[in-house]
Amino acid sequence: MTLHRFALAALAAAALAGCSTTKLEEPKATPAPVETRPTVPPTTPTQPVAESRVAPVDLGAELTKAVSDKRVVYFDFDSFVVKDEYRGLVDAHAKRLLQIKTQKLSLEGHADERGSREYNLALGQKRAEAVLQQLTLAGVPAAQAEPVSFGKERPAVQGTGEAVWAKNRRVELKDK
Predict the structure, then answer these.
(1) Which domains does the chain have, with CATH numbers?
(2) Rounded distance, CA 100 to CA 105, Å?
(3) DSSP 149
């Protein structure tokens, strides 16, 4: 067993001796040539640069024009849920309010003539607040819109019947 250890040690010493290298002398390196150029100031173009013919766009004015005739959200009987068909209108007003930070809206809630004065005032307020909630979900600060209720006191259309009542169940979005 000692013989095996001695043989292993001799083999390892021979392997290490065979792996050792002597340092070779490296050739002297010459530095790479550096090209020097004179600095040239930038030249001005010989032809004038054409001005852009694209007119600037006032996005706030464009958005105001787009929603100027779309300012009423209608509701179902005894409901204050904003219908899907009016979400685009509310979103368009939200984009305008986000673009024009100083613009404020009055959200005027209304109801038809059916029901008591107190009930319709509360329903008109809930409708106005539902539109405000849609605006705030779109990122509009709540301070830019104020919900108010007129209940059944300011009908859009006089008379009776479902067609008349449907026009009176609304929230009007009015600029302040």
Answers:
(1) 59-175 (3.30.1330.60)
(2) 11
(3) E
One-letter amino acid identity for 10? Answer: A
pLDDT tens digit string along 32-45? 777 777 776 666 66
To 5 degrees, how large is the angle CA 96–CA 101–CA 102? Answer: 110
Which one is predicted more confidently, 171 or 3? Answer: 171
Q: What is the pTM of this model?
A: 0.64
Please report, as a single letter, which amino acid is at residue 117. Answer: R
153/121 Cα distance (integer angstroms): 9
Question: Which residue intervals of 44-113 are DSSP H helices?
Answer: 59-67, 87-99
Distances in whole angstroms, Cα of residue 105 to Cα of each of 47, 60, 175, 176: 51, 14, 5, 5
**Strands 105-110 and 145-151, sheet pairing:** parallel
**Cα 74 → chain centroid:** 27
pLDDT at 34: 77
In this prediction, residues 53-63 reach a mean pLDDT of 63
Distance, in Å, from the CA atom of 79 to the CA atom of 102, rounded to the nearest integer, reads 31
